[in-house]
Amino acid sequence: MNAADAIPNWDSLIRPHEVRGSMYTDPALFELELQKIWYRTWVYVGHVSEVPQPNDFVMKSIGPQAVIMTRDKDGEIHLLLNRCSHRGNQVCLKDSGNAGSFTCPYHGWTFTNNGKLRGYPFPTGYEGVDNSQLGLGRVTRMSIYQGFVFGSFAAEGPTLEEHLGGARETLDRLVRNSPENEIEITAGFLKHQVRSNWKFLVENETDGYHPQFVHASIFAVAKSGIGDLYSSKSTAVSRDLGGGHSENDLRPEFRRLDKPLGWFGTSAERLPDYTAKMNAAHGEGRAREIMIDGTPHVMIFPNLFVAEIQIFVIQPLSVSETVQHVTAIQFKGAPDINRRLRQQTMGSVGPAGLLLADDGEMYERTQRGVQALKPDYLYLGRGKHREREDEQGFVVGDATDEVPTRGMWRHYRSQMEAD
Ligand code: FES
Ligand SMILES: [Fe+2]
């Protein structure tokens, strides 16, 4: 694709079981993705627990755009853009804090944390100016599901619930592992920058084919059984949830194991406080089921990955640069399991963690690999002959099949082709 040929030939770029290498390397396509996906669809921004008190704020993003997520004095959440309405300076440089207003450093214009212009120095120079028209920019729509705050720059379009569709239930499944039915994002974020296109990350999050090979060393060191969940003998399934969302549903294996907290590599006896609170909240029978099923492994298109015990937020910076923001999930009211959730997160995706380093290496090598001119396409046909529908009508495949990737590309194409 180039400027003279502004409408891409989608039939040649994306086919049911293959995509062209240029899908990951073409800067013009990246610009189009910003318009058609990142600045249009619902994108995950942050979690309400990151701004627990009135006047808290935290710096977030939608793709390359900085977004200030604030909670105003009345408790309302706002998604503001970091650009002074005077002459464009950034009004906030902090990652987080507590402030009722933001003062631009250039000429001192001040904005309240709900985005309104409060005032400016030497106001006689602005006789007759309507201050209500000079607030900060904001993300056009905001909506919250289970504490997850999403933003969309499109004034109209599907509601957040419609956008989440089949993935909505996975967030319900996540929060019910908290005795208070709420998760908290309070453990702090690590940022991992990779020289790779963002779609390689999205595809990899629910790629059940790679763990046995890419993560063989950490599974061996940790004596982990996770690798077996992603083998050709596994009863786990890969599922296309529609809307570009997908999951590796490991519950069939956990149910076979029939052990509460087996999904987390531990047992109810080792986490007695958590288990007691879950029993009190749900009743023993239901608590047992929840603690057997565990939390989901789900990619919510385009940027929120819930990886059982962590969330990853994917932020594209350019066609070949992406940041993953990673943090441990915390269950409200469950300090004993939260400590372990943080420890395991440090071991797998912390600065010296092995798991994300393995994946990061693959992202960068793949990005370099697809620069080669031949073959034209990447092959995504694994398991296409055994795709089937589950009882809810979702397309599913075996644990190692490329059902999620095919679903992602189907949705991606529909977004990119839309007017
Ligand atoms: S650019 Fe912000 S006050 Fe002038
Ligand atoms: Fe991986």
Written description of the protein model:
By secondary structure, this protein is of the alpha+beta class. The chain folds into two domains: 102 residues, 3-layer Sandwich (Rieske Iron-sulfur Protein); 260 residues, Naphthalene 1,2-dioxygenase Alpha Subunit, Chain A, domain 1 (Alpha-Beta Complex), CATH 3.90.380.10. It contains 14 helices and 24 strands. The strands form six sheets. The protein has a nine-stranded antiparallel β-sheet. Strands 6-5-4-7 form a four-stranded antiparallel β-sheet, with no helix packed on it. The longest helix has 15 residues. 42% of the residues are buried. The model has no long low-confidence stretch (mean pLDDT 96). FE2/S2 (inorganic) cluster binds next to loops. Fe (ii) ion (FE2) binds next to α6.
List keywords for this structure.
single chain; 419 residues; alpha+beta; Rieske Iron-sulfur Protein; Naphthalene 1,2-dioxygenase Alpha Subunit, Chain A, domain 1; 2 domains; four-stranded antiparallel beta sheet; globular; binds FE2/S2 (inorganic) cluster; binds fe (ii) ion
The CATH topology of the largest domain is Naphthalene 1,2-dioxygenase Alpha Subunit, Chain A, domain 1
Supply the CATH class of the largest domain: Alpha Beta
The portion of residues forming beta strands comes to: 25-35%
The parts where pLDDT drops under 50 for at least 5 residues are none
How far the N terminus sits from the C terminus, by CA atoms, comes to: 18 Å
Topology of this protein?
Elements lengths: L9 H4 E2 L2 E3 L6 H12 L4 E5 L8 E7 L2 E7 L5 E5 L14 E3 L2 E3 L6 E3 L4 E3 L21 E5 L2 E5 L7 H5 L3 H8 L7 E2 L5 E5 L3 H8 L5 H4 L1 H6 L4 H4 L7 E6 L2 E5 L1 H7 L14 H11 L1 H10 L3 E4 L3 E4 L2 E9 L2 E8 L1 E2 L3 H15 L5 H15 L7 E3 L8 E2 L5 E4 L4 H15 L2
Antiparallel strand pairs: 1-2, 2-22, 3-12, 4-5, 4-7, 5-6, 8-9, 9-10, 11-12, 13-21, 14-20, 15-16, 15-24, 16-17, 17-18, 18-19, 19-20, 23-24
Helix pairs in contact: 2-14, 10-11
The structure holds FE2/S2 (inorganic) cluster and fe (ii) ion.
The site of fe (ii) ion has 6 residues, from helix 6.
